[in-house]
C-alpha cells in the first residue's frame, strides 16, 4: 500500500480433493474461487426459490406423506405387532420345554424343538422385513423434514441466508440442493427431485 505496509488478504477457495490427491482423473481445476462457485449456485437457487414461493408447500408435503409414507408406516406398525405376537408365542413354547421334561406338556420334546425352530425362523424373517421397512420410513421422513425446513426458509430465504453461519447455510442449501458438480467450463446444480416435481406440477 502507499504507506509501505504489506497487507495479507485471505480468500476462501474450494478445493477438489479428488484431483489434488490424484484420486480422480478429470480436466477441471484443482482450486476454484469462492465467488465463482457461490455466485453461480445462489443464482441457480434463486430461480427455483421464486417458483417455490408460488407453491403451497403445506399441501404438497401432505400429498407426499399420503402417497409415499402412509402405507409404509402402516406396514411398519403391522410388522411390529406381528413381532410382538411371535415373541410371545416363542416364550410360551420355551415354557413348555420344562413341562415336557416333567411329562406335563401336551407336546413332546421333538415337536417342541421343531416348533421353536420354526418360530425363530419366522421371527428372523419378520425382523429383516421390519428393518427394511423402517429404513425406508426413516429415509422418507428425512425428506419430509427437509421440505418442512424449506417451507420455513422460503418466505425469508435471502434474509436468513445473509445472517446464517456457514454451518446453517449448509443446512439451508441442503434442503434444496441434491448435489453440485463443477466442470472446467460450467457448474451444474442439481435440485432435489421431489421439489422439481412440485414445480412441474405447478407449471
Note the topology:
Blueprint: E1 13-15, H1 17-20, E2 31-33, H2 34-52, H3 57-101, H4 109-153, H5 157-163, H6 166-174, E3 177-182, E4 187-191, H7 193-202
Antiparallel strand pairs: 1-2, 3-4
Q: Describe it for me?
A:
- With 203 residues, the chain is mainly alpha-helical.
- Helices cover 68% and strands 8% of the residues.
- The chain contains 7 helices and 4 strands, in the order βαβαααααββα.
- Strands 1-2 form a two-stranded antiparallel ribbon. Strands 3-4 form a two-stranded antiparallel sheet.
- Strand 3 (177-182) and strand 4 form a beta hairpin.
- Helix 3 packs antiparallel against helix 4 (109-153).
- It is elongated.
- The chain starts with 12 loop residues before the first strand and ends with a helix.
